[in-house]
């Protein structure tokens, strides 16, 4: 998805090889069986968009001997410019150890990242934005299996189910949130869940844990707190982007109102808007065209309540109420 959208440079980390079992949920092709996943991905993605630079790294990021190579790739070979860092890291792994490795690297080098996952039953998933010191790190509120140190193989209810639709939906959420973050449009979500069984999409905001067991996370929180004390809301990494977006949206709304006003003036329409921003346009009337007034036909509140109250008492020409007439009709029946 990101390649089709024209992302300039993408780094891919994976040590695994393509298997036929991957065909039901990933974009690999049968003839790529046996290739490393990163080289197969590079081949496919360059066919889709040759302008995107794909850099493959075929090693395990959780291995101690590969740690420095992983960090150097992120911080020195991540950007389009030489010796620059990645703008955003996307974590799409299937184990907690890899997430913890990414979490530590991003905290250490202050790299924003997004984490995604699909549940073991394959019918729910989530995406999460992690900004070092601002939002919770992965260890601030870890899943129970991580907090207890329980081996993954002994987890209760382990299911090897794989549903390509769920994975595609979660991947779409992540790609969309990535574009919003990088291109500064819309609202960047900190957490979005997906429950396929109920079509439920919870969105929540969680604060960083000041007692996080990761000392680097606590240090980043203290640094952010100091910046916030000095700069206020401007200390938030997304503040400037949000401010620019709000200004841009305000200009777009003003332009839309101006366009509507010009159109109304052209046809000799008088628009009376009632609200916080009153707008009244009185344009010269073209010859042979009568002025038209557009107003709200309904107003809520005490006015309507009074009108309904008056309608409950219908008076005849004789001045008698409806109740009096009903009493007379009952008397005639006896």
Automatic annotation (TrEMBL):
Database matches in Pfam families: ThiF
Give GO terms for biological process: protein ufmylation
Any idea which UniProt keywords this protein has? ATP-binding, Metal-binding, Nucleotide-binding, Ubl conjugation pathway, Zinc
Q: Which residues form the signal peptide?
A: none
Q: Which residues cross the membrane?
A: none
Would you tell me the Gene Ontology cellular component terms?
Answer: cytosol
Q: Known SUPFAM superfamilies for this protein?
A: Activating enzymes of the ubiquitin-like proteins (SSF69572)
A molecular function (GO) held by this record is: UFM1 activating enzyme activity
Coiled-coil segments on the chain, per record: none
According to the entry, every stretch annotated as the THIF-type NAD/FAD binding fold domain falls at 1-213
Member of which family?
Answer: Belongs to the ubiquitin-activating E1 family. UBA5 subfamily.
Instruction: Name it.
Output: Ubiquitin-like modifier-activating enzyme 5
